[in-house]
Amino acid sequence: MADPTPAEVERYIAQGLACEHLAVEGDGRHFFATIVSSEFEGASRIARHQRVYRALGDRMREQIHALSMKTLTPAEWASSPAAAATSQHH
User: Fold this and answer.
1) What total of structural domains would you count in the chain?
2) Is the pTM of this model over 0.70?
């Protein structure tokens, strides 16, 4: 089984979790995702990560060897420096 691309990991997450913003970087084995979802409202960091793992399902065990993530609510994202940088480019 070929290692997934960042775009595929992004698609896997988006299929299982409604995201307002989603960006995945990686090299096929190690990935870093920035995920913004209203589903994270009121959830702890651990609960947010578990929600993403549920969205990925078996792929997390079988295809994705390492995933680091930043999980934010829309309000947290709106006040983050990354959001400001992203909006300036569009």
Assistant:
1) 1
2) yes
